[in-house]
Amino acid sequence: MNKPIAGFSKLSKEEKINWIAKEYFSTPSEAITLLKNYWNSDEKIQKLHDEFIENTISNFYIPLGVAPNFLINGKYQTIPMAIEESSVVAAASKSAKFWSTRGGFKATVIDTEKIGQVHFLFKGDVSKLELFFVQTKAKFFSETESITKNMQKRGGGILDIVLKDKTDLLDNYFQLHATFETKDSMGANFINSCLEQFAKTLKEEALSYELFTETEKGLQIIMSILSNYVPNCIVRAEVSCPIEDLTEKHIQNPQEFAERFVQAVQIAEVEPYRAVTHNKGIMNGIDAVVLATGNDFRAVEAGIHAYAAKSGQYSSLSHAEIENGVFKFWLEVPLALGTVGGLTSLHPLVKLSLQMLENPSAKELMQTVAVAGLAQNFAALRSLTTTGIQDGHMKMHLNNILNQFEANDEERIFIKKHFKLHVVSHSAVVELIENLRK
Q1: pLDDT per residue over 360-372, tens digit each?
Q2: Residue 85 appears among annotated catalytic residues
């Protein structure tokens, strides 16, 4: 294709598919069949999915798995995880089982404050702007009462608004920096609606403020938007036990294991190249639960990685120590999550996942998600400091390789038996398949 298409969004779903198949595929009928094979047979459910986004042509499946035996704050949970990567669910389940007999996971929500900002330019006397803000602040609250009324009934709302001078970073740059409590809602629409009203009030009040010059009255609103960086919306998850209780099949010397584990975490604390991969493992657990429960994993990712770099250097999200013969492993992460609104009330599998978690509050979901991240990190570090990461991961990945080469049942039995005694690698599997088929 070497020219744009006009009016694509106005085409019907069938017309969109036919156009794509004709323009991009040598066998259009096969492309159309493949897309339609992933449609839901229930027309009502398919229509629901079609309307989640724009220009929908099919569904893109990600497996929904479960990790049982999570003992969190004295209560067992089975955690839903939506993810396509091999070994993640198995690793989380293994960690859950390991810690269920060693006191389980402890999780605590430290704070739930969320942030939004009105970004604007002001050319003039900063002291007059500061006085203007003090005199106008009450109006920001009163003129958003229609927006905040229902949220206030649930115990949420606007916590505070402050004026921030950012002119040391950018000429004439200021912010209205607002903090919010949104209870069980993630709150993006609520926060953005409040911010846009703040901006309107700011603009209107400035125009009529007698102390401002004509230039100062013309302050310029650049944008009003929530922040996905929520360093005061924090949850902590941790595990601990006496060092001798760490003993298991692959941990014959628990003291040596604990020391190597702590050293591995310390490396991730000081070495950014390692920290990125270390934290990616944590996000394997966090993202999978965030996605399964209909939350925005991209916002969570952005906020958490910013938090990992808050010292000025990207570092480990998790920490470990040995003190008085006790091994302790923990993490603290910012998580802005919701259990009402958005996809939580629309997507059938999201509703099912939340029911599986016994319809948690936002705080309870924060705890579950943080624990999933810590469990995933523990599983990865246990493998890295004992058998090595590839041993378990490649055995889980073996099915993907077999599916890629469309191995039949007889080949699968032989190959899986072979790799119980040999190291799994992509090339080794391919070579064995080719030899079997000669």
Answers
A1: 999 999 999 999 9
A2: yes
Q: Furthest-apart CA pair in the chain: how many Å?
A: 90
Rounded Cα distance, 300 and 317, in Å = 14
Averaged pLDDT, 157-186:
97
Alpha helices in 252-327 (DSSP H): 254-270, 272-292, 297-308
Q: Residues 47-101: pLDDT tens digits?
A: 999 999 999 999 999 999 999 999 999 999 999 999 999 999 999 999 999 999 9
Task: Spot the catalytic one: 205, 238, 296, 364.
Answer: 296
- Rama region for 189: left / alpha / beta (φ>0; ψ in -120 to 50; rest): alpha
The answer to whether residues 289 and 367 touch, using CB atoms and an 8 Å cutoff, is no
Reduced 3-state DSSP string for the chain: CCCCCCCHHHCCHHHHHHHHHHHHCCCHHHHHHHHHHCCCCCHHHHHHHHCCCCCCCCCCCCCEEEEEEEEECCEEEEEEEECCCCCHHHHHHHHHHHHHCCCCEEEEECCCCEEEEEEEECCCCHHHHHHHHHHHHHHHHHCCHHHHHHHHHCCCEEEEEEEEECCCCCCCEEEEEEEEECCCECCHHHHHHHHHHHHHHHHHHHHCCCCCCHHHHCCEEEEEEEECCCCCCEEEEEEEEEHHHHCECCECCHHHHHHHHHHHHHHHHHCHHHHHHHHHHHHHHHHHHHHHCCCCHHHHHHHHHHHHCCCCCCCCCEEEEEECCEEEEEEEEECCCCCECHHHHCCHHHHHHHHHCCCCCHHHHHHHHHHHHHHHHHHHHHHHCCCCHHHHHHHHHHHHHHHHCCCCHHHHHHHHHHCCCCCCCHHHHHHHHHHHHC
Q: Position of tokens 């096969």?
A: 30
In contact, 230 and 336? CB cutoff 8 Å: yes
- Is 22 an active-site residue? no
Q: Is 363 a catalytic residue?
A: no
Judge residue 53's burial from the number of C-beta atoms within 10 Å of its C-beta, 0-12 exposed, 13-18 middle, 19 or more buried: exposed
Is the dihedral angle over the CA atoms 381, 387, 390, 395 positive or is it negative?
A: negative
The answer to whether residue 420 is catalytic is no
**Residue of 119, 278, 347, 393 with catalytic role:** 393
Return the DSSP state at 13: H
pTM (2 d.p.): 0.88
- Do residues 219 and 203 make contact, with C-beta atoms less than 8 angstroms apart? yes
196: CB partners within 8 A, 6+ apart: 224
Catalytic residue among 280, 319, 328, 416: 280
